[in-house]
Design a protein that fits this description.
GO terms for molecular function: delta(3)-delta(2)-enoyl-CoA isomerase activity. The protein is built from 11 helices and 10 strands. The protein has 276 residues and is an alpha/beta fold. The protein has a 7-stranded mixed beta sheet, sandwiched between helices. The protein starts with a strand and ends with a helix.
C-alpha cells in the first residue's frame, strides 16, 4: 500500500501513515477541533482502523508462515490534527446533533460504540497522542486507547475533561464503562464524572489518566508516542494482545453492545416527581 491513505478518499478527514515498520499513525483532521460526528466516525475513523488491522494481520500471517516475528510487530498512534497544537478532540458535535431527531437512538449504537469497541479490542497497542484539549467524547476516545501521551501544556493550555456535568448531560452507560475500566481510583473518577474537573497534563499524569507527558507541541507528542510505540509494538508479534485485551475489558465491551438507555435531566426529574 502507498502512504498516506485518506478516509474517505474523496475528502479525507483521517489520514493513515506508516512511518516505521512497527508504527502506523492515524491522524484525525475533522475541522479545527475534531468533533466526533456520525460521518467522521463511520466513514473516516473506523475504516482507517479497519485498514490498519487488515494490514497488520497480513503481516502477522506472513510472519507465521516465514517464522520471522519482526513482521508481526505493530502499534497504532491516534493523534489530533498535526498542523495545530490546540485540540486532540473537542468531543461530540452537540450543535449538529440537536438538529438530528434520530441522534439519541442512532449515534451511540451505530457510530460511537463501534469505534470504542474497535479500540478496546484492537489486536495491537493503540497510543493516543493527546496534542491539545481532550474534552467529553474526545476524552472517552483517548481513554479507550491502551496508552495516552499528552502535551505538557507549556506552549498552550491543554486540558483533559469530562465536562458533561456542567451542561446537564448524562454520560451514557457504555461511556461510563470505558471510564471505569481505565480509571481505577474512585476519588479520581469522582473528579472526572461528578465534578467535571479540567485536568492539566501534570494532574492527569499524577491521577493515572495519562501515561506520559511529552513536549510542548504536536511534534514532541508524536515523537514521544512513537518511542512508546516502538517499545510496546513488539509485544503484538505473538497475536495475543487483542485476545487478552478483550478479556481484560470484557464488561465494558459487553456494555457497548447493549441497547442505549435514553435518559436526560428532564426525563430524570419527571421520573423523580412521579416517584416522590
Amino acid at each position: 500500500m502507498s502512504y498516506p491513505v485518506g478516509f474517505p478518499a474523496s475528502n479525507p478527514l483521517v489520514t493513515v501513515t506508516h512511518p516505521s515498520p512497527v508504527v502506523w499513525v492515524v491522524e484525525m483532521h475533522n475541522g479545527a477541533d475534531n468533533r466526533l460526528t456520525e460521518f467522521f466516525l463511520t466513514q473516516a475513523l473506523k475504516p482507517a482502523l479497519d485498514t490498519v488491522e487488515r494490514l497488520w494481520r497480513e503481516n502477522w500471517r506472513a510472519a507465521v508462515a516465514s517464522k520471522d516475528e519482526k513482521l508481526a510487530q505493530g502499534a497504532v498512534i491516534l493523534v489530533g490534527n498535526t498542523q495545530q497544537d490546540k485540540f486532540f478532540s473537542n468531543g461530540l458535535d452537540l450543535a449538529g446533533s440537536q438538529k438530528d431527531p434520530a441522534f439519541k437512538t442512532n449515534f451511540f449504537p451505530l457510530s460511537f460504540n463501534p469505534v470504542l469497541h474497535r479500540l478496546l479490542s484492537f489486536p495491537i497497542p493503540v497510543i493516543a497522542a493527546v496534542n491539545g484539549h481532550c474534552f467529553a467524547g474526545g476524552m472517552v476516545l483517548a481513554m479507550a486507547c491502551d496508552y495516552r501521551v499528552m502535551t505538557d501544556g507549556s506552549k498552550r493550555n491543554a486540558w483533559i475533561c469530562m465536562n458533561e456535568i456542567h451542561f446537564g448531560a448524562q454520560i451514557p452507560l457504555f461511556l461510563m464503562g470505558v471510564l471505569r475500566t481505565k480509571v481505577s481510583d474512585a476519588l479520581v473518577l469522582r473528579k472526572v464524572v461528578l465534578e467535571g474537573h479540567r485536568f492539566t497534563p501534570q494532574e492527569a499524569l499524577v491521577s493515572g489518566i495519562i501515561d506520559r507527558i511529552a513536549g510542548e507541541n504536536t511534534a514532541g507528542v508524536l515523537a514521544a508516542a512513537q518511542t512508546l510505540a516502538e517499545k510496546v509494538g513488539p509485544i503484538a508479534k505473538t497475536g495475543a494482545w487483542g485476545i487478552n485485551k478483550r478479556e481484560l475489558h470484557r464488561e465494558v465491551i459487553e456494555a457497548l453492545a447493549r441497547d442505549v438507555q435514553i435518559l436526560d435531566v428532564i426525563a430524570d426529574d419527571k421520573a423523580a416527581k412521579a416517584r416522590l
